[in-house]
Amino acid sequence: MKKVIISGGGTGGHIFPAISIANKLKETIEGIDILFVGAQDRMEMEKVPAAGYPIEGLWISGFQRSLSLKNLSFPFKVIASMFKANRIINSFKPDLVIGVGGYASGPMLQAAANKGVPTMIQEQNSYAGITNKLLGRKVDIICVAFDGMEKFFPENKIVLTGNPIRKDILDLKHSAEDSRKQLELENEKTLLAVGGSLGARSINLGVKAGAKEIVAAGIQVIWQTGTDFFDEAVQFIKDEKLDDKVKVFDFIAEMDRAYAAADAIVSRAGAIAVSEICCVGKPVILVPYPFAAEDHQTKNAKALSENDAAILVADNEAINLGQIVIELFSQPEKMENLAKNVSALAHRNAAEKIVAEASKLLNTST
Question: Which CATH class is domain 3-163+348-364?
Answer without folding.
Answer: alpha beta
